[in-house]
UniProtKB/TrEMBL annotation, chain A:
Species assigned in the record: Sinisalibacter aestuarii
Localization in the cell: Cell membrane
Record's keyword annotation contains GTP-binding: no
Name this protein carries in UniProt: ABC transporter permease
Membrane topology: Multi-pass membrane protein
Membrane-spanning residues: 24-44, 64-83, 95-113, 125-144, 151-173, 179-198, 205-223, 262-279, 309-332, 344-367, 388-406
InterPro entries linked to this entry: ABC_transp_permease
Keywords: Cell membrane, Membrane, Transmembrane, Transmembrane helix
UniProtKB/TrEMBL annotation, chain B:
Keyword check for Isomerase: no
Location (main, coarse): membrane
Keywords: Cell membrane, Membrane, Transmembrane, Transmembrane helix
Presence of the UniProt keyword Transmembrane helix in the record: yes
Name of this chain's protein: ABC transporter permease
Organism: Sinisalibacter aestuarii
Domain of life the protein comes from: Bacteria
The organism's taxonomic lineage, starting at the top: Bacteria, Pseudomonadati, Pseudomonadota, Alphaproteobacteria, Rhodobacterales
InterPro entries associated with the record: ABC_transp_permease (IPR001851)
Topological relation to the membrane, as annotated: Multi-pass membrane protein
Length: 421, 382
């Protein structure tokens, strides 16, 4: 391609790195092709049936029937992209090919798992969306605080605090008040984190770990000390799904996007607002400047401390909202440590999504998909242990952090305290 | 360490590191007074939490008495305190060593899981071996498994710069799934059980109980000696050996260490590996000495408590030993508290977190207890 004409040493190095990456991508794609061809082989006669609508839906669609030959075609396609990458890939095509390639592998996997059976695709996509919500909100909280260079390990604790408060206040007063209280408590822990790291200059990771330990201890203590004997304090009314008229009748898309509860809508709106705010407003520009080069921002009159306080508190509120999903958005009852690492997965989604709200949401959807697929796999009786599938997001995150497929770059000042001169 | 200048720089670096590790000026205040005040403040706040959740004053008093009684009040209490402290201290030593080398290893939990699992599998795989071989080899299997699991994060950090906090968190989450998967394999699972649980460690593989000649219920086991040996060994490694010097130097100033000819990548991998080995040893001693089998969730958050431990102990082996005894005591006392006063043991988690807040932000303790410290500028005792 065009990189032959580049002649300076630095650019040559860049070109050769990109070449190397293209080769790695090519090899990975070829391996995936072999995987689909041999491990996910479906007999041509067998068909996989995907149900798209249920009998209750307004518009009925016929089942999607995929013949077994589909996987052979996928393997061929993967091999083609792989060879193309290996020989003459580079630039933006590497990432795109890997993305497309992985998508194809997932399709092939579904066909393989479903061969000779039938399952509800729309139902799974709907579950994906629901499971992605806490991860996306956790990831968004991470984006908001890391964009102002505060590493936020405490998302897990903030989610847990939100879940707990939502259940408690929701049971005592009402779900709406519970939701607001959850947001407020999340914000409070955000402010606490900001105080510890900005004012007291505590190590950011230690501060996060401490908040997690503290919230876990406090919520577990109250659960076993108070809730165990007072069940009524831990029994909030759940937010039901709101059908959006007309839109919710669209087949497939309707149930996935427009028949959900306020947490799904809230997450989507928040991601949109955050993207606009961070990348299209003055405030967002200042926030990002604080994350990249606080000294320069300070010189230009941005109040670095205040900006950090504000955004970390905001991040806490987002996480508190996400936390309320666990109780007010699904079961209405708080259990000890019910977030179960979702905050850390949110952190992973943030990295995976390259510190961008939309990226974090997309990553959360992938993780949510893996999660609901894992549930389905148990029903479909496939030979793959569901634990390995559940592990996929973690391994993917390690791969991304290690920069094996594309480098994810955090904000330049991420994790560093700022001392005003 | 090739030139004398480099060596002096590094000595400075080492001193600076020690100073940082002990919180700067006022060694005595930071090493003794801050932790004591932190513990007192945390206990007082713990009492306030109890008050806020409707526990009456009498019960609060009773629960503190139970806390003391359950941790040091009897031979059984001391045995329980030591039993709880053993894996905590082992994992804490590893984390402290990582902190000294500038690595924030959050992965002790996963390394404990791997170590415990490997030790259990090794022990029941060779039931014929005599105890004198089977116990050390099982412990070694645990240490190696932990070292490999942590070394993975170390290699990634050294070769690609992947931040160890993220990779170790991901490895933690993965380890729980690996554990459940492994426990369901026919080779590992107890015959006839459908839930994931491993076969039992044979008699010869169990760490012998030290005091069962007094009372068979005293659980403290020979892992105590392993732990004490490791405290001494890590002290020697950190402060008397060349490699420990390299750990500390590259933790304080990686650039200076590199200029002095130290191989930073190798140091990272070695430090992570050692930390993982210690955590793995902790998991192995827990499985071989207390649990006698591996089951889901057997790590029980020890690896996370160990982070707190390493911070409280200022990443110094002796500090970690003392902090571990404190945490072990809180743990054992907490169980007594639950029985005697009906206060949930989860209160201990709150107290532990509060201790760390006060330790890690000494400014906060100084703000709360101003009379306990010299004034910085005036220098006079208040």
């Amino acid at each position: 391609m065009s990189n032959v004409t580049i002649n300076t040493a630095g650019a040559e190095q860049v070109a050769s790195t990109s070449d190397r990456r293209a080769r790695i991508t090519g090899v990975i794609l070829l391996l995936l092709s072999a995987l689909v061809l041999f491990a996910l082989d479906v007999a041509p006669g067998e068909v996989a049936t995907f149900r798209l609508t249920t009998v209750r839906d307004a518009v009925q669609l016929p089942d999607l029937v995929v013949p077994g030959g589909f996987n052979t075609i996928v393997a061929a396609l993967l091999a083609f992209i792989g060879v193309r990458q290996f020989l003459r890939g580079g630039g933006k095509w590497s990432t795109l090919s890997i993305g497309g390639g992985l998508f194809l592998v997932v399709l092939a996997f579904l066909v393989w798992a479903d061969a000779g059976k039938s399952f509800n695709l729309t139902g799974m996509l709907q579950a994906t969306m629901v499971r992605a919500v806490p991860i996306a909100l956790g990831g968004l909280a991470g984006v908001l605080s890391e964009r102002v260079a505060v590493v936020n390990i405490a998302i897990e604790g903030m989610l847990l605090a939100g879940a707990f408060t939502g259940a408690l206040v929701g049971s005592l007063i009402g779900s709406w008040v519970g939701l607001f209280a959850a947001v407020a408590i999340g914000g409070m822990f955000g402010m606490m984190l900001a105080a510890l790291v900005v004012t007291f200059r505590m190590d950011q990771i230690i501060a996060g770990v401490v908040i997690n330990l503290f919230v876990l201890g406090l919520t577990s203590y109250v659960t076993s000390q108070v809730f165990a004997s007072n069940r009524w304090m831990n029994n909030a009314e759940v937010f039901r799904a709101w059908k959006i008229p007309l839109l919710s009748d669209i087949p497939v898309l309707g149930p996935v996007l427009f028949q959900q509860n306020i947490f799904v809508y809230g997450a989507l709106i928040l991601v949109g607002v955050a993207t606009y705010y961070l990348f299209h407003t003055k405030g967002g520009l200042r926030a990002r400047a604080v994350g990249e080069h606080p000294r320069a921002a300070d010189t230009l009159g941005v109040d670095v401390y205040w900006t950090r306080y504000f955004h970390v508190t905001l991040a806490g509120m987002v996480a508190g909202f996400g936390g309320a999903w666990f109780t007010l958005g699904s079961v209405g009852r708080f259990d000890e440590n019910m977030t179960n690492g979702k905050g850390f997965i949110g952190l992973a989604a943030m990295i995976f999504g390259r510190w961008h709200p939309v990226g974090a949401l997309s990553a959360a959807l992938i993780f949510g998909f893996a999660d609901s697929l894992q549930q389905k796999l148990a029903l479909l009786n496939t030979p793959i242990p569901s634990e390995f599938l559940a592990m996929a997001p973690y391994i993917a995150t390690i791969i991304v952090v290690a920069g094996l497929i594309g480098k994810a770059r955090p904000p330049a000042a991420d994790g560093q305290p700022y001392v005003k001169e | 360490m090739s030139t004398s200048i480099g060596k002096r720089e590094l000595d400075d670096a080492g001193r600076a590191l020690l100073q940082r590790a002990s919180g700067g000026r006022g060694q005595f205040e930071d090493l003794v007074i801050v932790p004591i005040f932190a513990v007192i403040a945390a206990l007082v706040l713990g009492a306030l939490v109890m008050l806020a959740t409707g526990v009456d004053i009498g019960t609060i008093g009773k629960s503190f008495v139970a806390l003391g009684k359950g941790s040091v009040g009897s031979l059984n209490a001391i045995s329980e305190t030591l039993t709880s402290a053993i894996p905590l201290i082992l994992a804490g030593l590893g984390l402290g060593l990582g902190f000294r080398a500038g690595l924030f290893n959050i992965g002790a939990e996963g390394q404990i899981v791997m170590g415990g699992l490997a030790a259990a599998i090794f022990a029941f795989s060779f039931p014929g071996l005599p105890a004198i071989l089977l116990i050390p080899l099982s412990l070694l299997a645990g240490a190696i498994a932990g070292a490999i699991y942590a070394g993975f994060a170390g290699v990634l950090k050294a070769t690609t710069g992947a931040h160890e906090v993220i990779t170790t968190i991901m490895l933690n989450l993965s380890s729980f799934l690996i554990l459940i998967w492994a426990l369901k394999q026919p080779y590992v699972q107890v015959a006839g059980r459908s839930d994931p649980i491993s076969k039992s460690v044979p008699e010869a593989g169990q760490l012998p109980r030290l005091l069962d000649w007094i009372d068979p219920n005293l659980r403290v086991h020979a892992g105590l000696f392993v732990m004490l040996i490791m405290v001494a060994f890590i002290w020697w490694l950190l402060f008397r050996s060349k490699i420990g010097f390299a750990f500390r130097a590259s933790g304080e100033n990686p650039d200076a260490a590199r200029y002095a000819g130290m191989k930073s990548g190798l140091i990272i991998v070695a430090a992570m590996g050692t930390a993982g080995a210690l955590a793995g040893l902790g998991g192995a001693s827990q499985v071989l000495g207390v649990l006698e089998r591996a089951s889901p969730g057997f790590s029980a958050g020890i690896g996370f408590d160990a982070i707190a431990l390493a911070l409280l102990g200022r990443s110094h082996p002796v500090g970690i030993l003392l902090a571990g005894l404190l945490f072990g005591g809180l743990e054992a006392g907490g169980r007594q508290m639950q029985v005697d006063a009906g206060v949930s043991i989860d209160l201990i988690g709150i107290i532990q977190a509060l201790i760390i807040v006060f330790i890690a932000a000494p400014l906060l303790v100084r703000a709360i207890f101003p009379w306990g410290f010299r004034k910085d500028k005036e220098g006079g005792a208040a």
